[in-house]
Structures are given as C-alpha cells and as structure tokens.
Amino acid sequence: MTVALVTGITGQDGSYLADRLTREGVEVHGFAREGATVAGSSLPAAVHVHQVDLRDHARVGSLVAEIAPDEVYNLGGISSVAYSWAHPAETGLVSGIGAVALFEAAHAVQEATGRRVRVVQASSAEIFGTPDRTPQDEGTAIRPTSPYGAAKAYAHQMAGIYRSRGLDVSSCVLYNHESPRRPETFVTRKITAGAARIATDGGGVLALGNLDARRDWGWAPDYVDAMVRAARHTEPDDFVVATGVAHSVEDFVRLAFSAAGIEDWSKHVEIDPRFVRPVDTAVQVGDAARARAVLGWAPTVTFEEIIEKMVENDLEQIHREVAR
Ligand code: GDP
Q1: Is the CB of 250 within 6 Å of ligand 1?
Q2: What separation in Å is there between the alpha carbon of 227 and the centre of ligand 1?
Q3: Which domains does the chain have, with CATH numbers?
Q4: Which helix or strand (DSSP H or E) is residue 232 part of?
Q5: Atom 8 of ligand 1, residue of closest alpha carbon
Q6: Distance 8 CA to ligand 1 centre (A)
Q7: pTM here?
Q8: pLDDT digit string, tens, across residues 193-216
Q9: Catalytic residues
Q10: Are 68 and 109 in contact (CB under 8 A)?
Q11: pLDDT digit string (tens) for 229-250?
C-alpha cells in the first residue's frame, strides 16, 4: 500500500488531497498545527493526523522516519501573503526552513530504506515577485517582493538542490487556486462571502484593497491533481501550474455580486487602505505548457464557474445558519 505524508492537511489543498488519496486507497498521514481547523467540513476518518509545528525540525525528522512515506506533499506553512507581511520571521522558519527540514528527512528515509521517496513542494507564483515577463514559466527570474515569496523562493531553490542530490522533488509553482474551502483571508472568499451576505441582508458594504490587481485564478482540486501527477511522474522537475488567463479583482467582484443577484456592485464596495499592501504585484499569469505536455494536466473549471460554485456555497451556508 502506498503511504503518503501531507503537511498542511487541514488547509484547502490538504483537505482536497486527503479526500483524493483516501479514495485511491492510499494510507494518508497528515501534519497539522495544534488547534488548526479543517478547511471544508472534516477530513476522511482514515487519515492519521499528527500534531506538528513545522518549526520543530527534530520532531518533523523523527515522524517522517517513523512514517517512512512513499510520497510527501509539502503543503504546510504560512499560506497568506497578507499574513507574511505581519509575521516575516515566522514565515521564513515555517515556509522556508521547514521545507528544507522535510526534504532532509525524506532524503534520510530514502538512504535508510533504499526505496525512492517522491516529494512535491507546493511553491507559489509569489517567487517571481514583480515578474520580468508575462506569462511566467519555469525559466522566469526568481525575484520575490514579499516575505512569503522570499520564503517560498528559498524552499523552491532548495528543492532543486535536493533533486541534484538524488531526491525526487518536484516543485509545483502554483498560481492562485480557490474553492469554497478558502478562508476569508483570501480576497476571493472574502468577496463571495461578502456578496452572499449583502444579497441576503438586502444591503451592506464590503471593504477591499486594490481592485486593479490581476491574478490567474484556478480551481483548487485541479491544482491538487497537478501535484499528484507531479509526484508520480518519473522525472522530477519544476512545473508552473496555472490557467494562463488573468482577471482583475474588480472582475471577480462584478461576477460574484452578479451571481448573488446584485448587478450594481459599486454601491456595496469601498476601498479601505488597511487592505492595500506595501508591495502588490500588478499582474500574475502563468504558462503551464510544461505541466500540460509532461504531466498531461489541464484545468477543468473556468473562472466564471469557480465564482458561481463559491457564491452558491456561501448562499447555502447563510441559509443553513438562518434555518437553525
Ligand atoms: P495572494 O495573491 O496569494 O496574495 O491572494 P489574495 O487572495 O490574498 O490576494 C489577491 C489579490 O487581491 C492581491 O493583489 C491583493 O492585494 C488583492 N486584494 C484586494 N483587496 C483585498 C482584500 O481585502 N483582501 C485580500 N486578501 N486581498 C485583497
């Protein structure tokens, strides 16, 4: 039986990956921070959850040795750029050095057992900062502009270094990927939850930051699928995972309010400087040609469909709460 270890099991991607791997009959172990709440409703009962702080490198090492996984998915860490500006040192320890501790532990298992351990690093478009070319691909200069991006860039480069030491590490450079399991710290869920609330209450205002930022938004389960494909592909490599289409935050707002039944969104949105970042990349859009050609991966859900699914979920959630 394949044994998989997933860090960040309680997060959006971790919970979708747990669903997928348990469906396939994989034995799933997950690392979770103490007190972490599960994105979505709950994890499959078969998942073995271990409480670990990714800054506790000794414990990470001993648990990985004990579990002796065949596949390791490093999804854990600080997931929000906004949070990283307030907690830069913690971000470096968890998302940067924490990844290296995991690669080291996986490498040790491989050396001890003589069995290949396949690792996927969930990297991020933030490693490119303000990119020098659009769309970005695996050859784009790594030049982060946020504490989150810098920590992810270090982990991405260390993935390459471990690859050259003989560990099968693929780094998936993930562009924004969303779902109803996103927390409201991300702009997409903040907008869909806000639009659903305003539509239900018959009024109200949503405070946002930069509406002009353009992002390449995809569907989270598709990005989980790309990571599984990367783990199981014979040749580890770097893979950009993106839809190739960018939309503005304003486009997202307009479609989300419309899906909630409100055509004039502008009456319900105000700009609050608290949500405007010190540095914000104007446009991020990825070229996933390598993932498409090598992994046979393709996104399956459109931008409009993502928004519809998220708004529908938020409206249902409000109706359930009201009915209680
Ligand atoms: P990120 O791309 O991983 O940082 O994902 P986010 O969903 O947090 O942010 C996406 C974009 O939305 C960024 O350009 C933000 O500056 C912009 N944005 C505008 N208003 C807000 C807001 O109120 N909250 C957040 N989180 N982002 C916002």
Answers
A1: no
A2: 24
A3: 3-177+220-241 (3.40.50.720), 180-215+245-279+301-319 (3.90.25.10)
A4: helix 220-232
A5: 186
A6: 21
A7: 0.96
A8: 999 999 999 889 999 999 999 999
A9: 124, 126, 148
A10: yes
A11: 999 999 999 999 999 999 999 9
